[in-house]
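Minutes, project check-in
Item: structure for the 154-residue chain
Input as provided by the requester:
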Amino acid sequence: MTRRELALLLGGAAILPAAERGFKPLFNEKDLTGWKLVGGRGKGYLVQNGVIVCPEDGGGNLFTEKEYSDFTLRLEWRLWDGGNNGVGIRAPLEGDAAYVGMEIQVLDEASEKYKKGAGLKPTQMTGSVYDVFAAKSGHVKRDGEWNNYEIKMV
């Protein structure tokens, strides 16, 4: 894995006992069955060692094929120096998911890349609803350590 990957583990049974809590895994830990890549760059997203990985030369929007209305999404993510990604919710397949839907930001906000003249706003920090609502910054675990999100949409 490269140092700027973002790896998402969505509903992994080994970490979240999904059946016990009524959760259903969105990711089977083997391949991207049930997912659709829109506007992909490079390799897009890959599955490596049971996690979804966005290589440094990859990206795009990775959507679930199934639509959800009210839900609780639990996921774990990690990133390396300078990593930047997000979790799009309630977004259509067209347009910028951060603006036609909502994006929960995932950013290595402690990286020098974002400190030197980047001009980031509080609404662009990790955990924020991108460019709408600011989360308290300074809590990102870096350099491959796992972070957790629980996103509730009702």
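Outcome recorded: The first helix runs from residue 18 to 21.
No further action items on this chain.
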